[in-house]
Amino acid sequence: MISKHHPRYESIKVRERLVDGHKKGITVLEGLIAHGRGEAFDYLLGEKTTGPASNAIRASAALLVLAECPVISVNGNTAVLCPQGLVELAEVCNAKLEVNLFYRSDRRARKIEETLIEHGADRVYGVSPTEVIDGIASERRMVDKEGIFKSDVVLVALEDGDRTEALVKQGKKVIAVDLNPLSRTARYATVTVVDNVIRAVPELVKEVRRLKNAQERGGRDGGDLSSDLEMMVSAFDNQKNLGESLEVMCRNIFKEYSFSEE
Ligand code: PTJ
C-alpha cells in the first residue's frame, strides 16, 4: 500500500493501473516500457500541460469539431490510462471509438471493447476489422470499414510513426498525443499534442465543449464559426509547436541544473 504522502504517489498509482491492466489482458508488457519512456519526457515537461501543448489542444479541438467522420483510436495503454475521458471525448465530438493494436489479438481487442463499454461507450469499432491501410508493417494496418477506414480525422496516442505517416498519406488528418516531440509520430501528425494523454484528453473534452457551445451561440446569432476554426487549424504550425515543446524541456533542464549548482 503506497502512502498518499509519497512524493511520487500519483505516478506510482498510474504505474499500478498499467500493471493491473496487464494482469487483465489489456496492456502488453511492451506498453509498460513505452510508458516508462513517456515518463522521462513528462519529467522534462515538468509534468504539466505546457503553453505549446495548450495551443495544440485548441487546434486539435478545432479539427475534431470540423471533422465529418472523426475516430478516436484506442490501444492497450490508453484503454487503461483514460477510458472515461476517451468515451467522453467521443461523445462530445460525435467520434467513433476504434480499437487499434500494435500487438493485436482478438482477446485483447474484446477486453478493450469491454472496458470502453463499462465506461459508457455505446459501440466500439475495430474488434473485427476487415480493411487494410497500405504502408503499415504491423497489425495496426487492420482497420474497421465503418471507422478509421472511412474517417477524415483520427486521434492517436502512444503510437508508432509508420501508421501516422500512412494515415496522412491517405489524406486523413492525424491528431497525435505523444510526450516525445522527437518521435516520428510527433513529426508526421497534422497536430501533435506533446502532453501526457492523462492530462490532454480531459483538456480536449473541455475545449471541444467550449467550441461546440460557441458554435451553437454563433448559430443562433446567425454567425458561422467554421471559417474561424479552419483558420485556426491552418495557422497551426506543427513543426514550430514541436520546437516550442523542446524549448520548454531544455529550459527545465537548465533550471534544474542551475538549481543543483547553488
Ligand atoms: O496496445 P498496443 O498493442 O497497441 O501497443 C502499444 C504500445 C505502446 C506498446 C506501442 O504503441 C508502442 O510500442 O509504442 P512506442 O513506439 O513505444 O511509442 C510510444 C510513444 O508514446 C513514445 O513516444 C512515448 O514517449 C509516448 N508516451 C508514453 N506514455 C505516454 C506517451 N505519450 C503520451 N502520454 C503518455 N502517458
**Overall pLDDT level:** 94
Using DSSP, what is the number of strands? 8
User: How is the biggest beta sheet arranged?
Assistant: 6 strands, parallel
The first-level CATH class is given as: Alpha Beta
Structure write-up:
This protein is of the alpha/beta class and about 260 residues long. The protein has one domain: Phosphopantoate/pantothenate synthetase (Rossmann fold, 3-Layer(aba) Sandwich). The protein contains eleven helices and eight strands. The strands form two sheets. Strands 3-2-1-6-7-8 form a six-stranded parallel beta sheet, sandwiched between helices. Strands 4-5 form a two-stranded antiparallel ribbon. Helix 3 packs across helix 9, helix 3 packs across helix 10 (about 225-235) and helix 5 (about 85-90) runs parallel beside helix 9 (about 195-220). The longest helix is centred in the last third of the chain and has 24 residues, at about 195-220. The two termini are about 35 Å apart. The mean pLDDT is about 95. The structure holds ligand PTJ.
Layout of helices and strands:
Elements: H1 9-23, H2 29-45, H3 51-66, E1 70-74, H4 76-81, H5 83-92, E2 96-99, H6 106-118, E3 124-125, E4 131-132, E5 142-143, E6 153-157, H7 161-169, E7 173-177, H8 184-188, E8 191-193, H9 197-220, H10 226-235, H11 238-261
Parallel strand pairs: 1-2, 1-6, 2-3, 6-7, 7-8
Antiparallel strand pairs: 4-5
Helix pairs in contact: 1-2, 3-9, 3-10, 3-11, 5-9
This protein binds ligand PTJ.
Ligand PTJ is lined by residues 28, 30-31, 34-35, 37-38, 41, 75-77, 81, 101-103, 157-160, 177-180, 183, 196-198.
